[in-house]
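Backbone shape codes:
===
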Amino acid sequence: MSDRIRFPDFDPQGPRLVYVAIADHVAARIAAGELRPGARLPPERDLAIECGVAYLTVRRAAQVPRERQLIVTVHGKGTLSPIRCRSDPNKQVEPRPSPG
């Protein structure tokens, strides 16, 4: 079983900026518990294809939840839903890259 979550079809039409709509979509999935702590998001290029938008739009969209500390990007590992500390749910523990 994979840690990856498949995002549903995304319609980029609407009154909001597309990158904001994508960022809100990711945030809603985290809030709903569909992205459990440490779960890996799809690669940005894959998400761009799924959403039918440019890769740079998804890159910009990823900045919003990253700034809100809803996701963490670890070089070589990808973008993840952060792990929360059990003793203090407001404290975020950044995932560490696996050795090797």
About this structure: The longest strand covers residues 72-74. Residues 18-92 form a domain with the Arc Repressor Mutant, subunit A fold (CATH 1.10.10.10). The chain has one domain: 18-92. Strands lie at 72-74, 78-80, 83-84, 92-93.
